[in-house]
Amino acid sequence: MTVLAEKDFKVRYRNSVLGFVWALLNPLAYMAILTLVFSYLLRVTIPNFPAWLLVGLLVWRFFSIGTAQGLFSIVGNPSLVSKVYIPRYLIVLSNNLANFIGSSLEFLVLLPLLVWLGVGLSAYALILPLLMVLEFLLVFALSLSLSALNLKYRDFYQLWDIALQLGFWLSPIVYDASLIPARFRLFYSLNPMTSLIEAVREIFLQQQLPTAFDVAVVLASVILFLALGLLIFRRSEKRFAEEL
Amino acid sequence: MPIVAVENVWKRFRIPHEKRSTILDHIAGALSVLEGKRYAYEEFWALKKVSLELGEGESLGIIGPNGSGKSTLLKLIAGVMKPDIGTIRTNGTIAPVLELGIGFHGDLTVKENASIYGVLMGLHRSEMKKRTEAILEFAGLNRFQDAKLKTLSSGMSVRLAFSIAVETEAEIFLVDEALAVGDMEFQQKCLDKFREFKKEKKTIVLVSHSMGLIREFCEKTLYLLNGEVRSFGSSETATTRYLDDLKAVT
Question: A4 at the B interface (CB within 8 A)?
Answer without folding.
Answer: yes
